[in-house]
């Protein structure tokens, strides 16, 4: 039989640590960083010069609440709260080039996080942001480059996934 303790408040008696359970116990409920998802690209994606292109992260590593769609490369928020949003990427190019922009769209139109810059030979880039989100909000990643040629947005696995997109709800 499982015991239950129902209280409105727990106050520590002394010290600065409050222990609930023991090492190795599993915690569930509001103490976990869910929902969470991480998706990655399995192969490169060509970005034409001068065109804003939605990046297709086509494989999931984690998707605790089925909020990410690999068919649309869109995350739809299943639980309201503050989220840590992130993406990392690299262009597959043996040459340096300027004028790249990778950004996250919020609800289809608002750019909430972007990385503008210069691509150096196989440089990796990372962006992270914390934002309060509501149920039904959507997130997508887009890329843009204006070099005059097409360049490949990196995909696959090269000692870790080359391009990833993810989010996790924060505790608190």
Which stretches are low in confidence, meaning pLDDT under 50 for 5 or more residues running?
none
Strand tally, please?
A: 14
Averaging pLDDT over every residue, what do you get?
83
Can you tell me the overall shape? elongated
Rg, Cα atoms, Å:
20 Å
The total count of helices amounts to: 0
Number of domains as seen in the coordinates: 1
Q: Which CATH architecture is right?
A: Sandwich
Give the SSE order as H and E letters. Answer: EEEEEEEEEEEEEE
Strand content: 35-45%
Helix share bin: under 10%
Query: Remind me, CATH topology?
Result: Jelly Rolls
Largest sheet at a glance?
6 strands, antiparallel
Give me the secondary-structure category.
mainly beta
Provide an overview of this structure:
With 172 residues, the protein is mostly beta strands. The chain has one domain (35-169): Sandwich (Jelly Rolls), CATH 2.60.120.40. The chain has no helices and 14 strands. The two termini are 31 Å apart.
């Amino acid at each position: 039989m499982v015991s239950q303790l129902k209280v409105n408040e727990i106050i520590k008696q002394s010290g600065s640590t409050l222990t609930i359970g023991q090492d190795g116990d599993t915690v569930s409920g509001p103490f976990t960083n869910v929902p969470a998802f991480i998706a990655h690209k399995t192969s490169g994606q060509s970005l034409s010069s001068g065109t804003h292109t939605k990046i297709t992260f086509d494989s999931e590593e984690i998707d605790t609440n089925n909020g990410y769609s690999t068919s649309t490369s869109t995350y739809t928020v299943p639980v309201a709260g503050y989220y840590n949003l992130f993406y990392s990427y690299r262009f597959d190019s043996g040459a340096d080039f300027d004028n790249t922009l990778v950004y996250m769209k919020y609800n289809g139109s608002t750019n909430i996080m972007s990385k503008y810059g210069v691509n150096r030979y196989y440089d990796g880039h990372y962006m992270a942001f914390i934002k309060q989100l509501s149920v039904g909000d959507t997130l997508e990643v887009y890329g843009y480059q204006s070099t005059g040629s097409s360049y490949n947005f990196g995909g696959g696995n090269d000692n870790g996934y080359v391009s990833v997109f993810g989010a996790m709800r924060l505790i608190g």
